[in-house]
Amino acid sequence: MVRTCDYPGCSNKDVADSPQSFHRFPVTDVALRKLWVLALGIHVHTKVEKIKKLRVCSAHFSDDDFLSTCPGQRQMKKRILKKSAVPAPQVNKTVAYQLIYEA
Fold this sequence. Notes:
By secondary structure, the protein is an alpha+beta fold. The chain has one domain (3-101). The protein has helices at 30-40, 48-51, 93-101, and strands spanning 3-4, 13-14, 22-24, 55-57. Strands 1-2 form a two-stranded antiparallel sheet. Strands 3-4 form a two-stranded antiparallel ribbon. A hairpin with an 8-residue loop joins β1 (3-4) and β2. Pfam families: THAP. One of its GO terms (cellular component) is nucleoplasm. It is found in: Nucleus, Nucleoplasm. This is THAP domain-containing protein 1. Keywords: Cell cycle, Coiled coil, DNA-binding, Metal-binding, Nucleus, Transcription, Transcription regulation, Zinc, Zinc-finger.
């Protein structure tokens, strides 16, 4: 079964040659999990069992959200999120456009 990104509107798939990395929700850190849930527009009272199955691809994080290698270290095969990373919030593009251009 091919896993897809659960970020609203994203169709990235976790396949062998995908340039994206896929990341699980933080389930043990309740405060951080709430931030992820809010960022994706998921209901705050969604059960943890359902949240455990969700994945978000690397397209929704900034480069600063990932651990970097130190000089002299080998390049990491897999991109690893920092423990504090939160996906970029889902933005209503119509509202954002109105705020920027019609203000």
